[in-house]
Automatic annotation (TrEMBL):
Name of the featured protein: G-protein coupled receptors family 1 profile domain-containing protein
CDD domains found in the cross-reference section: 7tm_classA_rhodopsin-like
PROSITE patterns xrefs: G_PROTEIN_RECEP_F1_2 (PS50262)
GO CC annotations, alphabetized: plasma membrane
Keyword Membrane: yes
Primary residence: membrane
Topology class, membrane: Multi-pass membrane protein
Record-linked InterPro entries: GPCR_Rhodpsn (IPR000276), GPCR_Rhodpsn_7TM (IPR017452)
Compartment(s) where it occurs, according to its Swiss-Prot or TrEMBL record: Cell membrane
Keyword list, A-Z: Cell membrane, Membrane, Transmembrane, Transmembrane helix
Length: 337
């Protein structure tokens, strides 16, 4: 911890150069922390309420939402406190909050990063294995893998307290490995989707499917490809600058310009935890429907009952046939007649 505090205290000399950047980063992290908490809570609650955790893909999304939620609840508030104390020149608070921000930031943002990579691999397995996927891949298997990854990450993050160089070297190794893995998985997914479209084209030429079915398959293919392109590009944009900053620090050391780049890249990674729920709702119809259903479910019983009553027109006599009291009264009147 002594080495960590020494490095953090020496960064106080750059406050005058980075004051405006720190203020902007504090404002951004405060805003996006609220978005991360709200969005990831909605996704988590929707997955739990719809009982989707038993499915491996949704289990991974639940883990990702949980780690992103931790970023919004723990990491971003700590970062704001850390930079505020740094601006005010409060060395003791800067030391404690700085170490905590780096430890929890690397832990939860790193776990989010690994889970996103794992999600790409899962999507590839789902397409590659096809019908065998459900038999070979289970949520319990994924839970063991996630637990193992979390324990390994905890081990390397713990080095930050006394051997920062080890933690930095680990990050320099793991970040490109994950970026390459996700890119390879993306290319494999792209190839599988393309082969599926080629099969549809062959069947269309043989007259086995209609032109409408062919057009629909091509449209779905384009939407799928565009979707994964957007997600992968966003993933690379968020994490590649962080990797470059790590390499520069290892080669050239710490400088005011490096501190500027470092603070910007870490904020981008934290903001990524706020954007992931938006990507879920945009690209996954099941998650989008579940979230919309959850939001509507937050309305009180009175609002729902008033909504049901307002949908029933008093002029529509047919609606009264659904009322048991109306049916009973009508039956009694007929009997008296």
């Amino acid at each position: 911890m002594v080495e960590s505090c020494d490095l953090i205290e020496t960064s106080l000399r750059y406050v005058s150069f980075l004051r405006q950047v720190y203020i902007a980063n504090c404002a951004l992290n405060a805003i996006f922390a609220v978005i991360a908490i709200t969005g990831n809570l909605l996704v988590l609650f929707s997955i739990w309420k719809c009982r989707l955790l038993s499915e491996p893909s949704y289990f991974l999304l639940g883990v990702l939402a949980l780690t992103d939620l931790a970023v919004g609840i723990i990491v971003q508030p700590l970062y704001v406190l850390y930079k505020t104390s740094e601006i005010l020149g409060m060395a003791s608070i800067t030391c404690v909050t700085g170490v905590a921000t780096n430890i929890f930031g690397n832990l939860f943002s790193g776990m989010s990063f690994l889970t996103v990579t794992f999600t790409w691999v899962d999507r590839y397995l789902a397409l590659h294995l096809h019908l065998r996927y459900k038999a070979m891949v289970t949520s319990s298997m994924y839970s063991k893998v996630i637990t193992g990854l979390f324990m390994v990450l905890c081990l390397f993050v713990s080095f930050y307290q006394w051997k920062i160089g080890v933690a930095i070297i680990f990050s320099i190794i793991i970040v490109p490995v994950c970026l390459i893995t996700s890119t390879v998985a993306y290319c494999k997914i792209f190839g599988i989707l393309r082969r599926h479209v080629n099969v549809f084209h062959s069947e269309a030429n043989l007259g086995e499917i209609t032109d409408n079915a062919r057009a629909e398959s091509v449209l779905k293919y384009r939407k799928s490809v565009l979707g994964i392109v957007y997600v992968q590009v966003f993933f690379l944009v968020c994490y590649t600058p962080y990797f470059v900053a790590l390499v520069i620090r290892t080669i050239l050391g710490v400088s005011p310009e490096w501190k500027l780049a470092w603070n910007i890249t870490t904020t981008v990674i934290y903001i990524n935890s706020s954007m992931n729920p938006c990507l879920f709702c945009w690209r996954m119809k099941d998650i989008r429907s579940a979230v919309i259903k959850t939001v509507k479910g937050f309305r009180g019983p009175r609002d729902r009952s008033e909504s049901r009553i307002s949908r029933i027109s008093p002029r529509d006599s047919r609606s009264n046939t659904l009322n048991p009291e109306y049916v009973k009264t009508k039956h009694d009147n007929q009997a008296q007649t």
